[in-house]
Write a structure and sequence with these properties.
The complex is a heterodimer of chains A (382) and B (294).
Chain A lengths: L1 H20 L1 E8 L6 H20 L7 E8 L4 H13 L4 E4 L3 H14 L2 E4 L6 H6 L3 E3 L4 H14 L4 E6 L4 H16 L3 E7 L8 H8 L7 E4 L5 H11 L6 E3 L6 H4 L9 E4 L8 H13 L7 H18 L6 H9 L4 E3 L2 E4 L8 E2 L1 E7 L2 E8 L10
Parallel strand pairs in A: 1-2, 1-3, 3-4, 4-5, 6-7, 6-8, 8-9, 9-10
Antiparallel strand pairs in A: 10-14, 11-12, 12-13, 14-15
Chain B lengths: L1 H31 L6 H17 L4 H24 L7 H23 L4 E2 L9 E4 L2 E4 H23 L1 H11 L1 H6 L4 H27 L1 E2 L5 H14 L4 H21 L8 H15 L13
Antiparallel strand pairs in B: 1-4, 2-3
Helix pairs in contact in B: 1-5, 1-6, 1-8, 1-9, 1-10, 2-3, 2-8, 3-8, 5-6, 5-8, 6-8, 9-10, 10-11
The chains are: A alpha/beta (382), B mainly alpha (294).
Chain lengths: 382, 294
């Protein structure tokens, strides 16, 4: 009996150490509760599905993926602590939450330890420069979304624009400004910029300011999102202002489509559009089968993308899980087919170029307008 | 002038909503020295009940009325479950209890209902605008003003003409003496919670008309604003809470409307500095009593 136990213990130890060598550890930090939950929760679900499916097919080059996730409660301080915990666990990849502050906090831990760190869905392109050469983005960066929106606006014949910005976050502040840069370079004019505060709810003053601008601008561009965007668009339309509105990926959620007449005709940039049996549509079906409900937002698919990118990075590094090898491999990814479309890191300074899908709200449903891969020369610097 | 008039209506609408929340807070404080930081969650509860009733296919008006009732019942439940065991406890103990109730409710909403906002389709009749010549005013701000006025008038009538109302006013002045007069403390406090819940329900509905969705942390921001309003008005004073709410709403709207663009990011700092200015002249708030509990 004693011998048997010893043998069992020994083989268990062997199994553990073998698993250690053949495992790619991914530390995923996300605000599963709190302010970031609406982005980080679906992202985690998408990532879980990807890990399960890739492992079921034998993993990546024989290595299984191991997802270690932590709830940061959307708190920057907690995120930094948990990032250090992940460094202690010797993860091969660190995934940071979906906003700038937490990504910078966790990214610094990853940077210092030489661990490839990817932000789950933060999109400000300045982040990569802020943190360092181990921080990569996953989502379509703001300047690329803005370029696609500007190209669309020009095609519609819009000559003048109004931007609605909030200085409270890089996303709500910079994205409309990137739009302005491209739009004005091409001969358009931003006639006015109106500022709001995130979470203010009451947009009556801003709406009356917009209504009093004469002559009225051809289009309003904003990266406001919930709960600000629904409040803004409702109050704007209620005041009888019918200027077209362009938005960005953070409003690609069920709430926008449930707003009724107020949101009708709004066009926004996002990461992909499920149709005609494309990979995104297939993903939505498999997600439904696993979780029992459709993905809450596009961010679930971005979670799947993320794991696919990690898998491609591991493959490209030729069996090495060394930080520098993984970093070089990720920097070398070009036109990788992922769930939402395709992605390129090569030559992009860790801020990927992605295809941008434009979606219009029609009768409370999403309608695919077009896909734009912006002309790289037009994309404004972060 | 037209712009000013527009902003005046906006100010009264926002201030009225703040006032409704602030009056509810002040009412609870006046009878039991509790600053209920879970008061904002009553707005959220009303919002979720409205959402689920609409999903079940109930007509909007009926669902709205039931959501107000639900907010009032939730307030009563809060008192019975969380606050009654701490009756007469230290003010800090009750304050922390209310923070705990608020956090627990946030987590419950997030885990059992969902982190994503639930959209509530507001009927077109109350999301449009009325036009008078060149003057254009949204229906929601008008409803907000009307609902605030009706609620306050009803509250004043209740406090002046009913037995429980008079008992509540007496309790606010001196609870111990009121009890010695044979008034049932539990009844007075339950009534205060029910009314504060009802007011929170009305404010929550007005809030949802503006934003079109309910989410787990919807009540946090308006509660903070209402808390400032209560303190400005003088802790525990109902007229003070109403005036404080209107004042804060007016300050916010006019600063947003008339500050130059470059100063706009500082508007909260400016409005709160003005509030501090009020305290230098009225250290106990506008209607505050120097002998009130500190």
């Amino acid at each position: 009996m004693r011998k048997y136990l010893l043998a069992a213990g020994f083989s268990a130890m062997l199994a553990v150490s073998a698993a250690h060598a053949d495992t790619v550890k991914i530390g995923l930090l996300g605000g599963q509760t709190g302010g970031l939950a609406s982005l980080d929760q679906p992202l985690l679900h998408g990532a879980e599905l990807a890990v399960e499916e890739i492992n079921a097919k034998g993993g990546v080059d024989g290595k299984q993926l191991e997802l270690i996730s932590r709830d940061t409660r959307s708190d920057t301080g907690e995120t930094a602590v948990m990032a250090n915990e992940m460094v202690g666990l010797q993860v091969n990849f660190l995934v940071t939450p979906c906003d700038g502050d937490t990504t910078i906090a966790a990214g610094q831990a990853g940077q210092a330890a030489g661990i490839v760190t990817i932000s789950g869905c933060a999109s400000p392109p300045i982040l990569a420069g802020n943190v360092g050469d181990y921080l990569f983005l996953n989502a379509t960066p703001d300047n690329i979304q803005a370029t696609a929106l500007a190209e669309f606006a020009e095609k519609q014949g819009y000559k003048t624009a109004l931007t609605l910005i909030s200085p409270d976050s890089p996303y709500t502040d910079k994205l409309p400004q990137y739009f302005a840069t491209v739009f004005e370079k091409d001969g358009g004019k931003v006639v006015s910029t109106v500022t709001y505060k995130m979470g203010q709810q009451d947009f009556s003053v801003e709406v009356s300011k917009i209504r009093d601008i004469s002559p009225k601008p051809d289009v309003i561009v904003t990266s406001a999102f919930e709960p600000d965007f629904p409040a803004f668009i409702k109050q704007l339309r209620a005041a009888g202002v019918d200027i077209p509105v362009l938005g960005a990926d953070a409003i690609d959620t069920a709430t926008t489509f449930a707003l009724g007449a107020a949101a009708e005709g709004v066009v926004f940039a996002t990461h992909g559009f499920p149709e005609n049996g494309n990979r995104l549509e297939q993903f939505d079906k498999r997600y439904q089968a696993k979780f029992g409900s459709a993905p809450e937002s596009i961010f679930a698919a971005l979670g799947y993308d993320l794991i696919e990118i990690i898998a491609a990075t591991v493959k490209g590094a030729g069996g090495s899980l060394d930080g520098t090898a993984l970093q070089a491999s990720l920097n070398n990814i070009e036109n990788l087919e992922i769930t939402t479309g395709s992605i390129t890191y090569k030559g992009m300074n860790r801020v990927p170029n992605r295809q941008v899908a434009l979606v219009r709200v029609v009768d409370g449903k999403p309608q695919h307008v077009e896909d734009i891969i912006p002309d790289a020369s037009k994309i404004p610097a972060p | 002038m037209e712009f000013f008039l527009q902003q005046f209506i906006n100010a009264m609408a926002l201030g009225g909503t703040y006032a409704l929340i602030a009056i509810g807070l002040a009412m609870i404080f006046s009878v039991m020295n509790l600053i209920n930081f879970a008061h904002g969650e009553l707005m959220t509860i009303g919002g979720y009940v409205l959402f689920f009733l609409l999903v079940m296919g109930m007509p909007f008006g009926a669902a709205l009325l039931l959501s107000l009732v639900a907010a009032a019942l939730a307030a009563v439940a809060m008192e019975l479950v969380a606050f009654r065991p701490f009756r007469n406890a230290d003010i800090v103990t009750m304050l922390l209890t209310s923070f705990a109730v608020s956090s627990i409710l946030h987590v419950l909403f997030q885990n059992f209902i969902g982190v994503r906002p639930k959209a509530i389709a507001v009927p077109p009749a109350i999301s449009g605008a009325l036009t008078f010549g060149t003057f254009n005013v949204g229906v929601v701000p008008l409803i907000s003003i009307l609902a605030s006025v009706v609620s306050v008038v009803a509250l004043v009538l209740f406090l002046r003409t009913t037995h429980v109302g008079v008992a509540m006013r007496a309790a606010a002045q001196d609870f111990r003496t009121t009890q010695l007069m044979g008034i049932n403390a539990n009844a007075v406090i339950l009534a205060a919670f029910a009314i504060s819940g009802l007011l929170a329900g009305v404010a929550g509905a007005l809030w949802i008309f503006q934003r079109g969705a309910v989410d787990p942390v919807m009540g946090v921001m308006p509660l903070l604003k209402a808390f400032i309003a209560v303190v400005v008005g003088g802790l525990g004073s109902l007229p003070g809470a109403a005036v404080g709410g209107l004042l804060l709403g007016t300050l916010e709207v006019f600063l947003r409307a008339y500050l130059p663009e470059g100063l706009l990011p500082f508007r909260d700092a400016i409005s709160l500095s003005l509030v501090i200015g009020i305290f230098t002249f009225y250290p106990h708030g506008l209607f505050g009593d120097a002998d009130a509990v500190r």
